[in-house]
Design brief:
Blueprint: E1 13-18, H1 25-41, E2 46-51, H2 56-63, E3 67-70, H3 81-89, E4 92-93, H4 98-105, H5 107-114, E5 124-127, E6 143-147, E7 157-159, H6 165-173, E8 179-183, E9 188-197, E10 200-211, H7 218-222, E11 227-230, H8 237-253, E12 259-267, E13 270-277, H9 287-293, H10 299-308
Parallel strand pairs: 1-2, 1-3, 3-4
Antiparallel strand pairs: 5-8, 6-7, 6-8, 9-10, 9-12, 10-11, 12-13
């Protein structure tokens, strides 16, 4: 692995934006603190943790922040909102730009962006109001009901028969203004990190997730011992290479930058894309740091790669 360049000078005033106002706040607090500690170890002299709330613009300007390291997850942090604000304020920031963030946060828009990419997508419909439920008549059961703009499996329900669909859809609408209903397929759940580093885009080794629950729900994601992690995933060389190529293609198709984590469901030898995460978790047990370590990238080096992305975006 080539030495990772340092593109941000050590004396820059860096604000690590974490916490925030989404349902994923607690995970973000852990991610942000870890990233802050890494930046200190890397020798950055002016780093501050900033818990994001409605006064964030005032805080950033008052503290003279020059670079925002975004460690926010979910609404207002991963969906283009904070990115747009930072652009207005003239502050450089890590990761994806406003458009890539907004597209990737919305499961329906992600599929629209990838519909001509050649990447396999699971059959689904998107509802904008409860009365649109008639659109689901052509779907095969069981189905997964998902808020279109939430992460961490929040608001998701597996529905086995049509008579239970209405309740699940109503629950999902409590979390988002649109709801995706996707056919439920049985296969291997995998996730792949994508990194922009030293002028090239690479895919990490594949992590396979084997939950002890029926599917990879919130409990399986955040309860110790509820998921078995296989790294690298037990896939054929052909499926491994194909999945990694699809991950890079998806990353580039939505104009992601810096890093992303792309989730797939492998059914037979076909990797179906589920979603693109533009600000993956950076906690002690998160996927991207573990995947990066498999190819010799330490946690601190990963943080440096992400920080470098603040200089890579072109708007």
């Amino acid at each position: 692995m080539a030495k990772i360049e340092q593109l941000i000078s050590n004396d820059k005033r860096i604000g690590v934006l974490y916490g925030g106002m989404s349902n994923e706040r607690e995970v973000s607090l852990r991610s942000g603190k870890n990233c802050y500690d890494a930046l200190i170890r890397l020798g950055y002299q002016n780093v501050e943790l900033i818990d994001v709330d409605k006064n964030i613009a005032h805080m950033l300007m008052g503290k003279g922040i020059e670079v925002a390291y975004i460690a926010l997850h979910g609404k207002y942090g991963e969906d283009g909102c904070i990115q747009g604000l930072l652009e207005i304020l003239g502050i450089a920031y890590t990761g994806c730009g406003t458009m890539a963030s907004a597209i990737s946060m919305d499961k329906h828009m992600t599929k629209q962006a990838l519909c001509c990419s050649g990447i396999p997508l699971i059959k689904s419909v998107t509802l904008n109001e409860l009365s649109d439920i008639k659109k689901c008549l052509d779907l095969n059961y069981p189905v997964m009901v998902k808020p279109a703009t939430e992460g961490s499996s929040i608001g998701m329900t597996k529905v086995d028969k049509p008579e239970d669909l209405l309740v699940a859809v109503a629950k999902a609408f409590e979390c988002a203004i649109s709801v995706m209903i996707e056919e439920f397929l049985v296969g291997a759940s995998i996730t792949i990190g994508v990194l922009d580093m030293n002028g090239e885009t690479i895919a990490t080794p594949i992590l396979e997730l084997r939950p002890k629950t029926e599917w990879y729900d919130y409990e399986a994601k955040y309860t110790k011992g509820m998921t078995e992690f296989i790294l690298p995933a037990e896939l054929s060389d052909e499926v491994t290479k194909l999945s990694q190529n699809y991950a890079i293609k998806a990353h580039k198709s939505v104009m992601a930058s810096g890093m992303s984590r792309v989730d797939f469901l492998v059914v037979g030898d076909v990797p179906y894309l589920l979603e693109i995460n533009t600000i993956p978790g950076m906690t002690d047990t998160s996927d991207l740091p573990a995947q990066s370590a498999e190819i010799g990238i330490s946690y601190d080096e990963l943080v440096q790669i992400i920080l470098n992305s603040a200089t890579l975006k072109k708007h």
